[in-house]
Automatic annotation (TrEMBL):
PROSITE patterns from the UniProt entry: HEXAPEP_TRANSFERASES (PS00101)
Keyword annotations of the record: Acyltransferase, Repeat, Transferase
Taxonomic lineage from the root: Bacteria, Bacillati, Actinomycetota, Actinomycetes, Mycobacteriales
Segments passing through the bilayer: none
Database matches in InterPro entries: Hexapep, Hexapep_transf_CS, LbH_SAT, Trimer_LpxA-like_sf
Statement: the UniProt record of this protein carries the keyword Transmembrane: no
The protein's name: Serine O-acetyltransferase
Source organism: Rhodococcus jostii
Family, similarity comment: Belongs to the transferase hexapeptide repeat family.
GO molecular-function terms, A-Z: acyltransferase activity
CDD domains tied to this protein: LbH_SAT
Amino acid sequence: MANSRSRRKTAINSRAILSEYNKQDLEAHGIERWRPIYWVTRPEIRFQRALRSVEYWSNKTSLIARLVWSVKRLILFRVTLHTGISIPPGVFGPGLAVAHPGSVVVNSDAIVGRNCRVHSGTNIGSSSLGAPRIGDNVYIGPGAVIYGAIVVGDNVAIGANAVVNRDVAADVTVGGVPARVISSRGSDGIHPNYSRTAGRQ
């Protein structure tokens, strides 16, 4: 859960990296730069900014930093309650776009790559064997459920209400219950930010 008390180490270990993550997250929403008004008008972006801030402060070890982290974690918890988005720190790479406020629940053991677009109703969960590992440039449609110790390749599109409980090869579209391959095109052409950040290192 996003309000976990654990201080999970993340990739955001400097202000420069924090700035780059925030920049790529905004780009994924089609926004060039942050504006304070988004804290009111764009709750999904407000959640992502709060998440990235917790990820940054989780790497700091001084007493003051621990206090700041506690405050940032409380802010994230409150934004989680307001938006319904529950994403733990350290799961998603840069370029995350949570498309809308609404129920999004992600297991803390999941690992998701760069440039992922997530829609409302998504649940990324674990089984007794582990949690999903999801590649770059993945589009997750509304209501999708992805669970278990599975691997989802790069450039995959997951259709609305799909249930994914086994590995998915790269560059395909899957849908249905249980999910199966329905197209070989993948997220290219579906993911609105695919061409802008695909392959960025």
